[in-house]
Structure prediction request, 148 residues.
Amino acid sequence: MRNGRQLCQDILDSAKQVIDYAAPSFTAYDDFTDAAKSATVDLHEGRMILKASGRPFEYARDSIVDAVLYRLCVIGEATGDLQDYNSPQIIQAGFGDIMLTLSGFRRMRDLLIHQHWKVDLGIVWNTIETDVPALHKRVALLYPHFAK
Prediction:
């Protein structure tokens, strides 16, 4: 069983990977989150197309989307374990508000694994755009509260 610190690190690493995979042209995390605020997504012939700053970014269904979906599964598994086994520490550290977010990522993981045919890439993009950066920031603050 991985401890809370290791689970936080899994979440942080995978969230960074999601951002890196989904926005290869952005050089920094903040550049991505700033541009994502005004981004729109279109689905066209099985491809996810992000339009930000007037430039379209296409995501190949096979490699990039698969990599993002895998990392979202890792995040979902780690958030679920973090919630299941470390809730008292999370609440004691003053991060009780994150519990609902952890649940949401666990539910997304369940959908990606057990009902993969229902995956909506528009929802995935919204998750990448808003939820993953927010989770990354909160977990980065939570991380030091777990012993080494």
